[in-house]
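Researcher: We're teaching a course module on how sequence relates to structure. For the next exercise, students receive a sequence and then see the predicted structure as tokens, so they can try to spot secondary structure elements on their own. Here is the exercise chain.
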Amino acid sequence: VNTAKKEDIELVKNNVRKVNKNAQIIMGISTVFAEDPNKIKGKRALIIEDGPTVTHGSMPYGAGTVAAKDVGVKEIIDPRPYAVGSIKDTFDKYTHLTNVLPAVGYGKKQISELEETINNTDAEVVVSGTPIDITRVLTSKKPIVRVRYGVGEKTLIEIKEVVEKFVKKHL
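Model: And here is the predicted structure for the students to work with:
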């Protein structure tokens, strides 16, 4: 079962409240799974997470970390010593990041730096917790296992109820 730490949940809630103190927060249950868990189990892994989630969202980890731990990763590699260029700058700016590589790459140069950072590591496997298939934008010398995630059925029902209530009230 994938669970978030209480302190991480409070961090997210506090960040949402900073932007909108009246926002309705739904504590959803998500499903998280690795496409090929056998490639991760017992391995030294570099975890790539959704950039905005772990940078601007202030989360210390994301779906990639959850899936890697669920399947029994041997070790999570700290990517900071291997970072180059703007990737290093990202770590300097977002100092809470230690065991995840934020997927930042909004142009050819930055994607190249992300690729170089990945290839510099001594990881046996790369676990990609990004919403996109990063193999479509970069080349890795290491196998990449994609992590998928989505909203569970119970949460989907709750979201539907919130939206219907909003529509009835405002439209």
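Model: If you want an answer key for the exercise: Strands lie at 30-34, 44-50, 75-76, 101-103, 125-129, 144-151. The chain has a mean pLDDT of 91.
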